[in-house]
Prior knowledge:
Blueprint lengths: L1 E9 L5 E5 L4 E3 L15 H7 L3 E3 L1 H4 L7 E11 L18 E15 L5 E6 L3 E4 L5 E4 L4 E10 L2
Antiparallel strand pairs: 1-2, 1-4, 2-3, 5-10, 6-7, 6-8, 6-9, 6-10
Amino acid sequence: MLRRITGFHADDAGEWVAELSCLHGQHIRHRPPFQNRPWVTTEAGRAEHVETELDCPLCDRAEIPGGLEVARTAGPFDQDTLPAALRRNHVVADGRWGCLRVIEGAIGFAMETTPPVEVRLAAGERQPIPPGVPHHLTVDGPVVLAVDFLVRDA
């Protein structure tokens, strides 16, 4: 899925890494003829690409970026106390990830990634939720769940 570039940093080997709004980092290299990105070699070129979009396959796979910490937890909720907003499409805010934790029972989870995710999660299972991706829960029996919100430097 497309993510906004928020900045750049050089890794330990001096290679440029795009910092994305989803909190992932992605190497951006100029290695013709395979990767033709001469703009990454200059500060001005990189500055021109801040706020442009880049595909993030890690978000499509719902892989939580490293180095995140729990900032807060919503819940626990059961089938009766689960907010109605979580039963219809909603998104996690930019700059944070969600992680659904099923404590007891089971719940249906659907997320509009490519390909779409539709799973039934049982007690002890977790589901990462990238920022800005519509998703919802389907309750069809007893369940207890919580959602952790993860950020960088909580």
